Amino acid sequence: MRYSFLSILANGLSGQKGWTPTWRDAAPKPGYDVIIVGGGGHGLATAYYLAKVHGIRNVAVIEKSVIGSGNAGRNTTIIRSNYLLPGNEPFYEWSMKLWEGLEQELNYNAMVSQRGILNLFHSDAQRDAYARRGNAMRLAGVDSKLMDKAGVRAMYPFLNFDNARFPIQGGLLQARAGTARHDAVVWGYARGADRLGVDIVQNCEVTGFLREGDAIVGVETSRGDIRAGKVAVAVAGSSSRVAAMAGLRLPMESHVLQAFVSEGLKPMVDGVITFGAGHFYISQSDKGGLVFGGDIDGYNSYAQRGNLPVIEDVCEGGMALMPRIGRLRLLRHWGGIMDMSMDGSPIIDRTPVPGLYLNAGWCYGGFKATPASGWCFAHLLATGAPHDTAGAFRLDRFRTGHLIDEKGVGAQPNLH
């Protein structure tokens, strides 16, 4: 079924009885050309582009729970491409361009809202750093605007401009950035992949890998063995545990990143704002809740929950930036498991184990990268060569020293 105004009207007149399931809950077949381990945004996007762009449709996406139950449903929904280094900027800008056409591509309302992101600066040195970043963005063909204090005040007059410790001096604006509905992105890619013949297998946990000699030739799961020509791993914070089943030790750590939603308010925060004197970022959802977050918890964990000291730290950052939110009540908070690479940048590459491919190390940037990650991972799986925009995301860069140290925000909290 293609969604349209006419389909809504027809089903409204027929008692809503004509709708079909968004995707099939498929049973696993004995074998596939490609198995993708991980039913989040990256895994489903990879399956969709494998089928749509490369014509490889004998594909299975295997998820141990239900699709989107991991980090895809546990983030703050920000999309942007305001990066500095050549290894990152072209990739995230490609992702931004895919976001801009995603709803038409998938025939699904992913609620992409290009409301802009404003990174505040609070010192002369930080202004110079943001000017450098903005210039690098412009050289790469990406929109950016360095704003002074008066320009920021005109946009957000309620911010604490005269904070004794952190006065706001201006900000770097990317107007094309914004937010998207995380669940809808997962559902849209699942629907698109399913329509092209991809099997989406839920409640199927991978417990090991099938081998012939040194090569991976399939997976062992809670629903039986499944063979494959290639196995692709896209499991975010569980990357190290899954890779360990294949005998790999990855250069990353798993940390919890908490996010928060307040009670609903009338429209107040039009775009996305980041606090330059602390790790705090905030936007407002279509339901009116303020959505915000901050630093990772400072210890390794696979639990999807956080701790109270980080909650206090995040709320302190919010109060320093926007004192008016002090009377708000938190509606809920949650934790996602971040696969923090040592340089804060991702990995899209084949592994030293034949037949095994890796998509991991997304740190804070996984959601915004979803379309380009799927596109580039699908290209790697289909052609055996990295996509041009993801050529720097090699696994062996930690051995050769070709790091992509965007901000030093790897797995060490003291470096953030």
UniProtKB/TrEMBL annotation:
One protein family per Pfam: DAO
Cofactor(s) of this protein: FMN; FAD
Cellular localisation: Cytoplasm
GO cellular component: cytoplasm
Catalysed reactions listed for this entry: sarcosine + (6S)-5,6,7,8-tetrahydrofolate + O2 = (6R)-5,10-methylene-5,6,7,8-tetrahydrofolate + glycine + H2O2; sarcosine + O2 + H2O = formaldehyde + glycine + H2O2
UniProt-listed Enzyme Commission number(s): 1.5.3.24
Protein name as annotated: Sarcosine oxidase subunit beta
Species of the source: Ancylobacter aquaticus
